[in-house]
């Protein structure tokens, strides 16, 4: 049973570019949350998707957008990349009907030059 | 002030020592989480608790709801316990609010 998978594992972009990160949730999970973790910091909540809609959003600008597909997989898009967007982007999945911890992927490390 | 505060930020120990990491929070919660993050980045959930105490192997987590405080204890620490330990809280939804983590190094 595969856990949460994220792709790519590493990515290098330049300022102003756009990036798409992908996440496949653990089997049986229907909710996907995205977090940004800057170096030496704890993760910060970006947004959460359930039933293909954004259910909650953290304090991130509109440059950060997402999508959830009918198979529950999700994408995180970031436009007009800034140097400060360099971070580890983590995806976590859960089942909205079950009270249990979220399962995390290994993350995508995004570097902006 | 951060909603979730952890201490210490860094911790070194000799193999076999008893370790305690503390977490305080300032918001209402439905659950508190302890997670472990290894250098590769992946995060593993260790405990999710809303009251009392939980134990898993050499790990023990406690929470005091009235004092808004939790502790993670590691008994008989081992070098393989070296990692970043993160405290997080959740409310009515899955959204997690994280502390900044405690970097633990256990030396043989």
Into which percentage range does the β-strand content of chain B fall? over 45%
The backbone outline of chain A, from C-alpha atoms, is globular
Unreliable parts of chain B: none
* Largest interchain contact: A-B, 29 and 22 residues
Count of helix runs of chain B? 0
Instruction: Let me know the largest β-sheet of chain A.
Output: 7 strands, mixed
Please state roughly what percent of the residues of chain A sit in beta strands, choosing from under 5%, 5-15%, 15-25%, 25-35%, 35-45% or over 45%.
over 45%
- Biggest beta sheet summary of chain B: 6 strands, mixed
What descriptive keywords fit this protein?
heterodimer, A: 113 residues, mainly beta, seven-stranded mixed beta sheet, four-stranded antiparallel beta sheet, 11 strands, globular, B: 108 residues, six-stranded mixed beta sheet
What does this structure look like?
The complex is a heterodimer of chains A (113) and B (108). Chain A has 113 residues and is mainly beta. Chain A has strands at residues 5-7, 10-13, 19-24, 31-37, 44-50, 53-57, 64-68, 74-78, 87-94, 103-104, 108-112. In chain A, 0% of the residues lie in helices and 50% in strands. In chain A, strands 2, 4, 5, 6, 9, 10 and 11 form a seven-stranded mixed beta sheet that branches. In chain A, strands 1-3-8-7 form a four-stranded antiparallel beta sheet, with no helix packed on it. Chain A is globular. Chain B is mainly β. Helix content of chain B is 0%, strand content 59%. The model of chain B has no long low-confidence stretch (mean pLDDT 94). At the A-B interface, β4, β5, β9 and β10 of A face β4, β5 and β10 of B.
Outline:
The complex is a heterodimer of chains A (113) and B (108). Chain A has 113 residues and is mostly beta strands. Chain A has strands at residues 5-7, 10-13, 19-24, 31-37, 44-50, 53-57, 64-68, 74-78, 87-94, 103-104, 108-112.
List the topology elements.
The complex is a heterodimer of chains A (113) and B (108).
Chain A: E1 5-7, E2 10-13, E3 19-24, E4 31-37, E5 44-50, E6 53-57, E7 64-68, E8 74-78, E9 87-94, E10 103-104, E11 108-112
Chain B: E1 4-7, E2 10-14, E3 19-25, E4 31-37, E5 43-49, E6 52-56, E7 59-64, E8 69-74, E9 83-90, E10 96-98, E11 102-107
Parallel strand pairs in B: 2-11
Antiparallel strand pairs in B: 1-3, 3-8, 4-5, 4-9, 6-7, 7-8, 9-10, 9-11
């Amino acid at each position: 049973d595969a856990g949460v998978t994220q792709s790519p594992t590493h990515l290098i972009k330049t300022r102003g570019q756009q990036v798409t990160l992908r996440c496949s949730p653990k089997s049986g999970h229907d909710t996907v949350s995205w977090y940004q973790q800057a170096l030496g910091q704890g993760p910060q909540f970006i947004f959460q998707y359930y039933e293909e809609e954004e259910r909650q959003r953290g304090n991130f600008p509109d440059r950060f957008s997402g999508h959830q597909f009918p198979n529950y997989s999700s994408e995180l898009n970031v436009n007009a990349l800034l140097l400060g967007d360099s971070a580890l982007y983590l995806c976590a999945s859960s089942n909205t009907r079950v009270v249990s911890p979220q399962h995390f992927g290994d993350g995508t490390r995004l570097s902006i030059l | 002030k951060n909603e979730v505060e952890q201490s210490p930020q860094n911790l070194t120990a000799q193999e076999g020592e008893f370790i305690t990491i503390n977490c305080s929070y300032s918001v209402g919660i439905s659950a508190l989480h302890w997670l472990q993050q290894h250098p590769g980045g992946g995060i593993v959930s260790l405990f999710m608790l809303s009251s009392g105490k939980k134990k898993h192997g050499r790990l023990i987590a406690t929470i005091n709801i009235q004092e808004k405080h939790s502790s993670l204890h590691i008994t008989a620490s081992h070098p393989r316990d070296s990692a970043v330990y993160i405290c997080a809280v959740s409310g009515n939804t899955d959204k997690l609010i994280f502390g900044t983590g405690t970097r633990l190094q256990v030396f043989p």
